[in-house]
TrEMBL record:
The keyword Repeat applies. It holds the Pfam family TPR_2. It comes from Sphaerimonospora cavernae. The lineage of its organism: Bacteria, Bacillati, Actinomycetota, Actinomycetes, Streptosporangiales. Keywords: Repeat, TPR repeat. It comes from the Bacteria. SUPFAM superfamilies: TPR-like. This is Tetratricopeptide repeat protein. InterPro entries: TPR-like_helical_dom_sf, TPR_2, TPR_rpt, Ycf3. TPR repeats lie at residues 469-502, 503-536, 605-638. The keyword S-adenosyl-L-methionine does not apply.
Amino acid sequence: MRHLWVRGARWSGEAPSQGLLVPPIDAHRRRCGPYTAAGVLLHALVPGALERRPDLVAAHDIEIRTAAPDLCDRVPARRQSISAGLPRSQRILVPGPRRTLRIANGLAEFLRDHLRDQAGSAGSDGPRALVVEQVDQADHTDRELLTVLLRRLDPALLTLVICAADPDPDLAAALERHAALVEDAGPDGDAGLVGDAGLVGDYVELDGSCDVPAVREPYERMTSEERARRHRERADALAATGLVAPRLGAIPYHREQAGDPRATIDAFGYAVERCLVEGFHHAVVELGERALRIIEREADPDAWWRILHSTASALGATEREDAARALFDLARREIVDAKDRATAAYATAMLLVRHHDPARRDADEALAWINEAVALTSLLPDRRVRAFHLGFDLNGKALVVSRRGRLTEAYRLVEEAIELAERDLDPGEHPIHRLVLRANRAQLTAMLGRPDEALPDLTAAIEADPRYPDYYIDRGNLLCRLGRHDDAVADYETAMRVSPPFPEPYYNRAEIRFAAGDHEGALADLDYALELDPGFTVAYVNRAGLLAGAGEYGRARDDAERGLALEPGNAHLLCVLGQVATAESRHAEARKALDAAVDRDSGLASAWAARGVLAFETGDLEGAVADLTRAVELGEDAEDAAQLFTALFNRAVALRALGRQEQARADLLQALELAPDDEDVRRALDAGS
């Protein structure tokens, strides 16, 4: 059984074998912007779920409140960062571009569990279908959600019927893998919209979301004055409802068409800011670019700058750094305010130092821009304003200089920013800024080789904002480095609870489980991490290695190849590929992969060790000793006991085969120090005595 892909805008109306979960949903983003389709679905399901499973709704409060903001009065915020209660000027952490994937996975799990509950209840009607139309016109958030649902929902539980003539690449790949293609939307194409609900003729009431000729043509025949009046009335009616969702889609559209400059600026200003705060970066770009074509800077310079800054930030977040840079260059040509120019300089530095393409990162040019920002904010006359903005820029400069290897200077810059905040900000002012600085100081302290000294800062950041998940990951990693594995797992599991699902805590817990010998638990965590994000390359590395160690070579090879498709040339994955080929006696293929691995990363001990094993198996004993010696040296430098033990033992085997008994014995004795209870080493020592 498979999901269905209708290659067209709308469903033909022929009922699938399952009953419909809800009436067909129009996903056109012009209606409610981000999560237009998800919002309709949640409004249909959440009231019933609140009656039957309030615990399930509570477990997904963040996801539901994000995708359906007009349910916030019915779904209390159980997990909420302190930033939600701060003024906008103090909410400095803009969600990253992957937040919407977390939301999508949480919504998928809510829907799955809700449907399972229904399927198990008395009087259940059996499997259902969900029809989503006009997916080509959906916002990125809805298309991402549908991609996740196609991958994670069993069609026997809910069959998705996705109507899309030209889906984006990610959605198209999911449709091709998980859905059966239906070429036509029906004999009348888009006629399915027109008829059943009597929707013919009112293009404005449909928020411009229907281009069926019978709907569009009457609108085209109106005078421009009549069209403007109708749009204005529709915008006013939607605004009078007090609903949030139309303010992210339909209201900006209607204000734009009505031609009232003040109302248009206000509508776009609200939508852009709300979408940026939620991490809806693709929507910010679209809304912002539309707004910048309308708003004249001279008419409202503050609104123009706010929208430009938000749009450029969202462009950077969606890996369109050149377009973001162009907007900041435009701002520099237009504005003279010192604080705003400093903000543009800071943002330009961050584009340069964080570019998604590592080859295009330029820490030197970034340093020039961040120095300009620091120079400008140092001159701001107001003590409190200067303390915040200068501290922000010093923190940014710390990132730039750390990328240039100047960790001590970076630490000093963050210390200076902390001192500014403590001295010149009012008590309790800018709490997010303060905890960001402390968390960054912790990272630098650890990088400078003092991990134990870093813990108090991370603990302070967590105590200041206990429902922000990322600092639990940072502290867990630090605790793991200090050998406090149980405490690290506790932090990872807290991150799991306070956030919608994301792969990092499961990936990190898998490493601890593997080290403790719980290979089954580690594999389960890695499986789930990759279910959440099939693009999480490092999880393929670890799962492939775990599978190879368990002798599941076919699955290990599949993981290595999937990972290499995402990151060609990944040395760790090439190493696994070589190990698998060695185990399967495909020696030429193994040699090619392992040579590529050491060429790509000459410091990767596991690749040298694997190539040493291959050399031994193909009769090149001297080559085996040479490669294993390099693996031993790297293992000693990295203080990796397990890796060093294996390399020493294997080198001892190769040395013994060459007749170099004393050297072999020395390796075995060193290996025994690392693993005193290892029976293989003891037997090898006994055999050589």
